[in-house]
Amino acid sequence: MLEDIQAAIPLGFLLAFMIGPVFFVLLETSIIKGFRAAVAFDLGVILADVIFILLAYFSSYQLLENLSNQPGLYIFGGTLLTIYGATIVLKKPKRNIENPLRYNEPSNYINLFIKGFLLNFINIGVLVFWLGLIIVVGPNFEGNTSRFYVFFGTLIMAYFITDLIKIILAKRLQNNLTPSIIFKIKKGIGGILIICGIALMVKGVLPKDKLNPSDIIEDIRP
What we know:
Elements: H1 2-15, H2 21-33, H3 35-58, H4 61-68, H5 71-90, H6 109-121, H7 124-137, H8 145-171, H9 179-205
Helix pairs in contact: 1-8, 2-3, 2-8, 2-9, 3-6, 3-7, 3-8, 4-7, 5-9
């Protein structure tokens, strides 16, 4: 099991820096709303990951492969992501009397947790990724469920700790931000979400060969 832990830690660290909508929204949440808000968001993201991991491990491979190849799921998730990004881009900042340019957005940790969960859960590509990873590393467990829990538990923990470091570093920028910069950051994140959503929809409509989930992990293998 020590070998499983040693293999999981660097992979968890690497996954924390994979570029995607969650990566940018996490940094934005930390910069604008602070440490606790970003942690709440990140816990929601991790819950979605845990559900995907368990689903990929305990469900039929053929079922998940067929599910992952349904273009409608990509289009549905991409549409939701695009709409969410568009609402951010079109939303006007709230104003208050003391400083008309300042945002007035008190943190609701439950909402942020749900936001993180849904933002990760609607992306079918995340499920495909975890399925590909399990296909690659699963044979090493030799049918030992305890080794599975140790490996992925360590991976998620390393992922979360790395995210905490990212959150702390991003939060240091908070005091240097002006209202106009915050406004531009939010608009930029909205634009990134729109791009990610469109990319997900395009992936659903373009013709593609039969999915081989094990190919997904090859590019990030240590």
